[in-house]
Amino acid sequence: MAVNKIIQCPRCSADITVYSNPVPTVDIIIETQGGFVLIERKNEPYGWAIPGGFVDYGESVADAAIREAREETSLDVNLQAALGVYSNPSRDPRQHTISTVFIASARGMPAAGDDAKNAAVYTNLKEIPHTVVFDHRKILEDYEAWKHMRTKGGTWTGLFFT
């Protein structure tokens, strides 16, 4: 369902189609201190989230993930795997985004930065706040399934796509 609009060139009055495309984002599940990092957002939508953000023009998704992790948690990360691509049009109430989700490792304790109000390490889904935003609870459930398969000696056959 394209939501394109037509504008007119201010010089020649020709019609110009402005295309409405999904916006690329990244999310990073950072494993550290025996758990994973969540941040509390300073901006709407308020709540807890996996660190991440928008991919800048000219930036790869891997570079965006490393940059966003550092900006929001003050941690330098090593990307370990791509968990999946999440593209449900309703995953972000602000606009249609498509997120590449990475699993990364880091050392140290996170410290909130950039648009993060707080940062904390959680060891399982049962202890995370109820106010998790976007589709991040679903992503964390997929991450738990990935971890379970990995610890049981299973073979990872692909990414989660939703």
Give a written overview of the molecule.
With 162 residues, this protein is α+β, with helices and mostly antiparallel strands. The protein has one domain (22-152): Nucleoside Triphosphate Pyrophosphohydrolase. Helices cover 18% and strands 35% of the residues. It is built from two helices and ten strands. The protein has helices at 61-73, 136-151, and strands at residues 5-8, 15-18, 23-32, 35-41, 48-49, 52-54, 78-86, 97-105, 116-122, 160-161. The strands form two sheets. Strands 3, 4, 5, 6, 7, 8, 9 and 10 form an eight-stranded mixed beta sheet that branches. Strands 1-2 form a two-stranded antiparallel sheet. β3 and β4 (35-41) form a beta hairpin. The two termini are 18 Å apart. The mean pLDDT is 93.
CATH architecture: Alpha-Beta Complex
In the CATH hierarchy, the third-tier topology is known as: Nucleoside Triphosphate Pyrophosphohydrolase
The percent range for strand residues is 35-45%
Helix content: 10-25%
Give the CATH H-level superfamily: Nucleoside Triphosphate Pyrophosphohydrolase
- What is the SS-derived class? alpha+beta
Provide the number of structural domains.
Answer: 1
Q: What is the CATH class name?
A: Alpha Beta
Radius of gyration: 18 Å
Summarize the structure.
The protein has helices at 61-73, 136-151; strands at 5-8, 15-18, 23-32, 35-41, 48-49, 52-54, 78-86, 97-105, 116-122, 160-161.
